[in-house]
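4.2 Preliminary Data

To establish feasibility before requesting continued support, the project team ran the inverse folding procedure on a target of 172 residues. The structure was first converted into the token representation described in Section 3, and no sequence information of any kind was made available to the design step. The complete token record follows.
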């Protein structure tokens, strides 16, 4: 029995020495040591990212609007002279039937907002206005309202282009 204890103790002592010897050969990874270059189960090797490429220069002709819609026959506001219609949308909300028409052209923002303010006034709408300069250009809002009509324009001017969304909503 004594021999068994000696062999078991030797094995245990030998196992401990082997364990300590194995640990002494391992190096600990610290924050200063870089991760391995090859993939591991924890950190797979990822292919290198391609070199960044410059975006192609925008085609100046591609930014010009092309007419995509005609003014609806029942749209009560005139289209500002020289502007092209780019989009039309109909809405129905809470008993109001609405039409929005987007137009684009080259005119001073103040002239466009004054034109539609006059249109709202001739229709007896109460008018409110807001205009401001932005880093990109200018913005203007003109709102007209009565008991049965809500109308407005939202206009922006950047460089030599003015974009206007005309809205007309009427309670039926």
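Position-by-position output of the design step:
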């Amino acid at each position: 029995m004594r021999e068994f204890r000696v062999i078991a103790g030797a094995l245990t002592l030998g196992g401990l020495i082997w364990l300590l010897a194995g640990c002494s050969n391992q190096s600990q990874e610290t924050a200063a040591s870089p991760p391995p270059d090859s993939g591991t189960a924890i950190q797979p090797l990822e292919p290198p990212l391609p070199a960044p490429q410059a975006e192609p220069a925008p085609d100046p002709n591609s930014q010009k609007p092309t007419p995509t819609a005609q003014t609806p026959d029942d749209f009560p506001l005139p289209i500002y002279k020289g502007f092209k219609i780019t989009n039309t949308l109909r809405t129905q909300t809470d008993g109001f039937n609405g039409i929005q028409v987007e137009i684009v052209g080259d005119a001073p923002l103040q002239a466009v907002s004054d034109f539609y303010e006059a249109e709202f006034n001739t229709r007896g709408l109460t008018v409110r206005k807001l205009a401001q300069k932005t880093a990109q250009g200018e913005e203007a809002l003109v709102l007209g309202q009565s008991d049965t009509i809500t109308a407005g324009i939202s206009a922006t001017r950047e460089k030599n282009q003015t974009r206007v969304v005309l809205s007309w909503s009427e309670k039926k």
